[in-house]
Write a structure and sequence with these properties.
Layout lengths: L1 H47 L14
Length: 62
């Protein structure tokens, strides 16, 4: 009987480890998506601003 109990206990630990691993991977995926989303928002904000002063002001009184 002890080998059956040890096998069941080992299977339970393996299932728990697999569940924890899956939850960890989901959390890491969510963090990666949040990081990519934040980087995309920063990139959009940077692109909307003029990058140089050349050509922003045109003197039409010449």
């Amino acid at each position: 009987m002890s080998s059956v109990t040890a096998t069941n206990s080992n299977s339970g630990q393996q299932l728990l480890t697999a569940a924890l691993s899956k939850n960890q991977q989901k959390a890491e995926g969510k963090m990666a998506l949040a990081l990519l989303d934040a980087a995309a928002q920063v990139q959009t904000a940077v692109q909307s601003q003029p990058s140089a002063n050349l050509g922003n002001h045109v003197n039409i009184k010449a």
